[in-house]
Write a structure and sequence with these properties.
This protein is of the alpha+beta class. 44% of the residues lie in helices and 22% in strands. The chain has a seven-stranded mixed β-sheet, sandwiched between helices. Helix 1 (11-19) runs antiparallel to helix 3 (36-44). The chain starts with a strand and ends with a helix. Bound molecules: coenzyme A.
């Protein structure tokens, strides 16, 4: 799996990812049921200079998970979504680790996540990351103070990010070339039968 920052040029892929979610998954991700139009407006309104999005990709370069960091005046808000067929494989955990490090690198002092109290996977994800979870009726709030990163952590971030982008473009290349070599072999062009033609 590859985890890397999403660029503004991948807005459509983010939109498609969210639009493919079921009504229940949309409710879990956004804490309310959103229509296609509202989701589209949400993604179109994302300012990638302010709002950081990490994507998890499979070996075919397909988007299988998203983690978002929305900056606030004092705290950054996190949100997560993993493609339903890819859940329970620690993708959420890896997205959480990576976005927490990114938030620390960006100077964010505290992060929080809002989710539905019934959302056990999100609760466990938050608790495993060391967040304090508070339940308030149907909604839950998890938060964590973030220390500044060490020099080692900063270099690890940049190294992993560079490797992830390199891997991603390698995957895209393999997918493209794979699609070409699995095509049926073209029939031999006419000029290959030239020896026969010469013999005549
Ligand atoms: C929350 C979510 C992102 C977790 O992604 P994931 O890749 O399945 O998570 P992981 O496999 O890393 O598991 C994280 C933790 O949840 C637990 N978990 C996963 N699925 C679970 C389930 N169905 N029931 C109970 N716990 C579950 C795991 O055991 C793990 O706990 P641990 O760290 O104590 O071992 C995913 O379930 C999802 O996309 N949900 C819909 C969107 C959402 O709820 N977003 C949260 C609000 S922003």
């Amino acid at each position: 799996m590859i985890i890397r920052k999403i660029t503004a040029f991948e807005r459509e892929a983010v939109k498609e990812f969210y639009l493919a979610l079921s009504a229940d998954d949309r409710r879990k991700r956004f804490c309310c049921l959103l229509s296609d139009e509202t989701i589209s407006r949400y993604v179109e309104g994302l300012d990638f200079m302010q709002h950081s999005v990490l994507g998890a990709f499979n070996e075919h370069g397909q988007l299988i998970g998203l983690a978002e960091l929305a900056p606030g005046a004092k705290e950054g808000e996190l949100a997560f979504s993993v493609r339903p067929d890819m859940r329970c494989r620690r993708i959420g955990t890896r997205l959480m680790e990576r976005i927490l490090l990114y938030a620390r690198m960006s100077g964010v002092g505290k992060v929080f996540v809002m989710f539905l109290s019934e959302n056990m996977p999100m609760r466990r994800l938050a608790q495993s990351a060391g967040m304090t979870v508070k339940m308030d009726g149907a909604e839950a709030y998890a938060s964590q103070e973030l220390p500044a990163p060490s020099a080692d952590e900063v270099s690890r971030w940049f190294l992993q990010e560079a490797v992830a982008h390199g891997e991603y473009f390698t995957v895209l290349g393999i997918e493209r070339w794979g699609s070409l070599v699995t095509q049926p072999r073209p029939t031999a062009p006419k000029f290959l039968s030239a020896p026969n033609a010469l013999a005549v």
